[in-house]
Design a protein that fits this description.
single chain, 79 residues, alpha+beta, three-stranded antiparallel beta sheet, 52% helix, 15% strand, globular
């Protein structure tokens, strides 16, 4: 973990840290899968995902099996 990533994480609420950890330990996941892994409700997970995206720590992309859904993954080259 680099210094800017550590600084960004230190500003986030516990729910966002949990979602970040789930994404770090698992493959890319949809919001529903994140909810199942983290035991967070959908609104809390959604808020955490927004905060992580705004911090530049994760990205989303269309989910290949259902284009109505998004898939979330860690940013690979976070600076």
């Amino acid at each position: 973990m680099n210094q800017s990533e550590h600084a960004a994480l230190s500003e986030l609420p516990p729910s966002a840290l949990l979602v970040y950890r789930v994404l770090k330990e698992c493959r890319p996941l949809t919001k529903q899968e994140i909810c199942a892994e983290s035991y967070l409700c959908a609104s809390t997970a959604g808020s955490a995902l927004t905060k992580l995206i705004d911090a530049g720590l994760i990205e989303d992309s269309p989910y290949h099996s259902d284009l109505r859904k998004r898939e979330y993954h860690l940013v690979t080259n976070h600076e």
